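S.,

As promised, the magnesium ion run. Input:
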Amino acid sequence: MPHSCPRGAPLPRYRSGEKGVIETMQATGSRERTFADESARLASLYASGILDTAPDPAFDAITRLAAEYFHADTAMIGFADETRFWVKSHWGDAIREQPREGSIFERVLLQDGPVEIADAGHEGPPFQGRSREAIFVAGVPVRCTERQILGTLAIFCREARGPLSPDELATLENLAEMAAAQLELQRLRRVMARHPARRSADRSEPAQKNGWPGSSELRRALERREFVLYYQPEVDLVTRKIIGLEALIRWRHPQRGLVPPMDFIPAAEESGMILPIGDWGLAEACNQIQLWREEDPRHGSLRVCVNLSARQFMREGLADHVESLLQKSGTSSRQLELEMTESSLIPNMQTALEVLGGLHTLGISLTMDDFGTGYSSLSNLHSFPFDVLKIDRSFVGRMGDGDQALQIVRTIIELARVLGMDVVAEGIETRDQYRLLRQMGCRYGQGYLFAKPLPPEDITRLLRLPGRILPDPEALYSAGEAAMA
Ligand code: C2E
Ligand code: MG
Ligand code: MG
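Predicted complex:
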């Protein structure tokens, strides 16, 4: 068993106050850890800020998943400083702190990798609480981005069981990666919160403050067919093929011109007018899907993505309504994608869960929009059947500003990979952002670099490009630059 740690295996001890080596008792084949290692590890731990945080539901989601997957009695995620092991989630138990000495964390740290203990019952006191009665324990490292071990994800079984299979071990390690990604996300969000300037600047100002538009104006606009859907291409970042389109509503106002959604959607949500407007948008998108399909049957592989707001979820029978729309227009559910932000799920998680389950059963893809701006993102991702994660454009827009935003994007891409979800980067405006995203393995993206949201007739022209492949922005710009020279 390659990762096993036999009973009585060496445990690290510090020689306090002394420089140099953390001694290992019975140093049988184990690696020595230096104080330099430990100080780097502690520096990363403190930088993560994890010791100051309250228990996070995102970690509960991971320990619950681990306990269920391995039929374990409990699972635990914790992070250790010099002496204490700070438990951030102990599924089914309320322990919050343990001595670090003799803990599973020390085993994992010493091993610099996964550890399995098959006869933990003979180990004496190290595994506290309910896990004390554990016979089988397996722990894997939770590492920071610099790869130092900050903590452990461990499972505890009160019944004897065989060693973890390679697949099981990989699953446990994936779960630990999720914990690490969540940790990183929390850290970066805190950093971003301290530097909010760009984020607020690049959002359009929300709803007008003078009470405009009222619900009667919105109703009239609907009757007079003043709302229109624009579409923005979503592209495969490697091939530049248009794989989908996001429908984005605009109001063609007779006096005010083309009004952007952030100027009337909040008012429509408040007044409830978002329900008929949303219905119109869904029906319109379904009809448009059919028109493009009639133009070329190969467009049957396009997915059109419609934004939903919180109010639309809270309505009984949304899935039935969408199903009847699909039937009426003859659209396949595979061509429809519904997109929502995390905050729209929060007001009534139970209803949202049911509604999303119903939509998913119909075969509709579900996208979490503006990812990274919410709070307990990971626990929501676990609970809801999302297929796609959209990286909020504030992160993409700040990638060039330094490491933090770059890290957050990297973390979200990694999170999506671990969760088996597709990832779309929003708001790609520059060739540098495009290149960085491709380098980081981000598969899909949308943004002004490729195309702005456009009326359907302009999209039809883009869809006629051979293979639906958009021109290479690199080549376009280089050609432009060459012409200027
Ligand atoms: P969203 O769903 O996150 O949509 C993406 C927004 O980013 C769109 O703004 C799009 O035009 C903009 N965008 C795309 N690429 C770039 C880029 O490269 N740079 C910049 N700076 N912006 C880019 P838009 O169309 O103004 O929509 C704003 C928000 O309004 C949407 O955000 C969505 O939350 C909401 N919305 C739009 N249409 C609908 C709708 O039909 N129903 C509902 N409920 N909400 C909608
Ligand atoms: Mg969207
Ligand atoms: Mg978005």
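Residues 246, 307, 339, 369 surround magnesium ion (ligand 2) (CB under 6 Å). The CA atoms of residues 425 and 445 lie 4 Å apart.

- D.
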